[in-house]
Design a protein that fits this description.
Blueprint lengths: L40 H8 L24 H4 L14 H4 L12 H7 L9 H4 L73 E4 L2 E4 L25 H11 L5 E17 L4 E17 L2 E8 L3 H13 L2 E2 L23 H18 L4 E19 L4 E17 L4 E8 L7 H14 L9 E7 L1 H16 L18 E4 L20 E6 L2 E2 L6 H7 L6 E2 L8 E2 L3 E4 L7 H8 L1 E8 L4 E2 L4 E12 L2 E14 H6 L1 E4 L4 E4 L3 E4 L2 E8 L1
Parallel strand pairs: 10-17, 16-23
Antiparallel strand pairs: 1-2, 3-4, 3-7, 4-5, 5-6, 7-8, 8-9, 10-24, 11-12, 11-16, 12-13, 14-15, 17-19, 18-19, 19-20, 20-24, 21-24, 22-23
Helix pairs in contact: 6-7
């Protein structure tokens, strides 16, 4: 007697001839045998559990180890020769009379391990096939099977043993990246130059194909390589880029940069940390057929120059010619080259600074001490026959300290060489300012005279220079009034300032660009392309990195001092006002030229310090800053901000403090 049919389920139609339950014509009987399911080699290995043995071996497909005389569960279930009977691909045919699925765990495994039979789908059977086509997302899930149980079988019990390590290939053997693959090629295939070749671009110091991924590396050379710090380090890349661009471009420019920076760092309660960051790369600007392109690649070998040139050719877009003519190119005075023992001098300076700060550590809390020393070599080559090279160095010291009951303060000092830094003076300045502005209350909001210390004046001077060179101040309705005490210029060619260079980012000779002088403010100054577009004078091009084309901006700002006053005389001139000692945050500037800068300040009454203010906000406009300069000090110091800034203390009338 047949078991009762579960409710809610329809009886499957018969597969042979005869009348159908719902009526209609009978289905013809199948006369040809059903073809066996197709299995790939990977699916066959999945069925066998990774054991290559013959199908007819004793013990079945997955019954146990090879040669086991006991029949497998498939053979006991009715198979012949250890092979399970053919099952239909329909899920309904796999249902038992009670509505339960067949067990997916072998009986022998259940008896040996004491496990309950599994009735869920095998993950590998539903989702993946080993060796299938990878999907986007990082894993290799493969393709889906047509049926959840087709091509898979329950795994039998197997003995556990120690994992075997794969045998190491002999020295010099070529290993393939995947089974059946080929080893790495000794020489890269030659790519045809055209519209559809794959350009190589730069992302975070490592070159890779456009649209593909890439790993970030600290150094600019290829991963694992070292920087060749010589005068001809980037010469192969320059020559190869010029050879690639000469027959295909009307005009071109190749810029190469080799940079190396030493980082020395010590935090509270930790030992010193030393690391070196390197940057090496090539950038190309190309003009061909009324179109302009730019491309860059990391490295200094010939292949990097080729990749940068091809990337610039692949990115050509319609635009005006941005390259200056050959008649305007040239170089100015060349500063002295850096010493070979530059990093050794910096390490000695860091040790002296740490020793000097330990003397004041009893009254202060030292959070972090950093020293950064960098040197770079820049080379420029054009298709018109111009070539130039320049070297520069800089050293920056940063200290984060606080009084016992005060907020953290940030202090900085910069110089062209380590010998120009005064370690003892910096340590005493850190102690004095941190203790002076430790406790207090915010000052009342009012318009008052302000004495800007060099750290605060440098932030305002840098923001003012960027505002002037962008032409925003000259775009106003009225001409600004400039105090006669202002003498601000971009000393690109030196000898003063922090970062003098013989030429700008486009090859024009470095010259002095006056910004504030003789009671007048300069207008817009830009690159050669901006000069052709807006009618402003060129010569303000910068190259912060080889990865981007030249941009306009200040490079080496210097506030000249003709008759500077000492600190005591400046306090007497101030008489009653605010002394801004050190910045307490970042500056904010709007489109109208109004700024806001948090500072640590002290109230001055009768030329003496009266009350401390750990945080006070200095507000005003650049027009008021230009018109209110009354005196300058004789304590010029250099700082490394968005550009190099060298400035003394500035006494400004009627600024807003609150």
């Amino acid at each position: 007697m047949l078991p009762p049919r579960p409710a809610g389920r329809r009886r499957p139609p018969p597969r042979s001839g005869g009348p159908r339950p719902g009526g209609g014509h009978p289905r013809p009987a199948r006369t040809t045998p059903r073809p066996p399911p197709r299995h790939t080699g990977d699916r066959r290995r999945l069925r066998r559990g990774g054991r290559p043995h013959p199908r007819g071996a004793a013990g079945g497909v997955l019954g146990g180890r090879r040669g086991d005389p006991r029949p497998s569960h498939r053979a006991r279930a009715g198979g012949v020769g250890g092979r399970a009977p053919r099952r239909s691909g329909s899920r309904r045919a796999l249902r038992r009379p009670g509505g339960q699925r067949p067990s997916l765990v072998g009986p022998r495994l259940a008896e040996t391990a004491g496990l309950q039979p599994r009735r869920d789908r095998p993950r590998g059977a539903v989702d993946t096939v080993p060796g299938g086509r990878p999907h986007r997302g990082g894993e290799r899930p493969g393709r889906r099977l047509r049926a959840p149980h087709r091509g898979t079988a329950p795994f039998g019990a197997q003995r556990l043993g120690p994992a075997r390590r794969p045998a190491r290939p002999p020295a010099g053997a070529v290993r393939a990246g995947r089974p059946g693959g080929t080893g790495p090629r000794r020489h890269a295939p030659r790519r045809a130059a055209g519209r559809h070749w794959r350009a190589w671009l730069v992302r975070q110091g490592r070159r890779h194909g456009a649209g593909g991924g890439g790993d970030a590396v600290a150094g600019g050379e290829r991963p694992g390589g070292t920087v060749n710090w010589s005068s001809a380090a980037a010469l192969p890349a320059l020559q190869r880029a010029a050879d690639e661009l000469a027959p295909r471009a009307d005009r071109f420019e190749v810029f190469a940069k080799v940079g190396e920076t030493l980082h020395l760092q010590r935090r509270a309660g930790e030992g010193p940390l030393r690391r070196i960051a390197r940057e090496v790369g090539v950038g190309c600007r190309t003009v061909a057929g009324g179109r302009v392109g730019f491309g860059a690649a990391a490295g200094s070998d010939a292949g990097c120059g080729r990749d940068a040139a091809r990337a610039s050719l692949a990115s050509l877009l319609p635009g005006p010619d941005p390259l200056p003519p050959l008649a305007l190119l040239g170089t100015g005075g060349q500063p002295a080259p850096p010493a070979d023992t530059l990093f050794e001098l910096c390490e000695q300076l860091f040790a002296d600074l740490s020793h000097a700060l330990r003397r004041v550590a009893r009254r202060l809390q030292l959070g972090e001490v950093r020293l950064l020393c960098g040197r770079s070599r820049a080379s420029l080559l054009t298709g018109d026959g111009f070539a130039a090279a320049a070297e520069s160095t800089a050293c920056v010291v940063e200290v984060v300290a606080a009084a016992t009951e005060g907020p953290w303060r940030f202090f900085q000092a910069a110089a062209s060489s380590p010998a120009q830094l005064d370690v003892a003076g910096l340590a005493s300045h850190v102690e004095e300012v941190a203790l002076l502005t430790a406790r207090g209350s915010p000052p009342p909001r009012a318009l008052t005279d302000v004495l800007l210390a060099p750290p605060v004046a440098a932030v305002l001077v840098g923001a003012l220079a960027q505002y002037l060179m962008a032409g925003r101040l000259a775009a106003g309705r009225r001409t600004p009034h400039v105090a006669p005490a202002w003498r601000l210029a971009d000393e690109r060619g030196g000898p003063g300032g922090l970062l003098p260079l013989p030429f700008d980012g486009e090859g024009l000779p470095s010259r002095r660009i006056p910004l504030l002088e003789g009671g007048r403010a300069a207008g817009r100054v830009g690159t050669w392309a901006e000069a052709q577009r807006f009618g402003c004078p060129p010569g303000a091009a910068l190259r912060p990195s080889y990865q981007q084309p030249p941009v306009a901006g200040p490079a080496n700002l210097v506030v000249s001092v003709t008759a500077g006053l000492a600190g005591g005389e400046l306090l007497e001139r101030l008489h009653h006002g605010i002394f801004a000692a050190v910045p307490a945050g970042t500056i904010a500037v709007d489109d109208g030229g109004r700024f806001a800068l948090p500072v640590a300040a002290v109230t001055v009454r009768g030329g003496r310090f009266a009350a401390a203010h750990p945080v006070a906000e200095l507000r005003g406009s650049f027009r008021r800053l230009l018109a209110g300069l009354a005196a300058v000090g004789a304590d010029s110091r250099s700082f490394s901000l968005a550009c190099g800034v060298t400035t003394p203390s500035l006494l400004v009338r009627t600024l807003e403090v609150g």
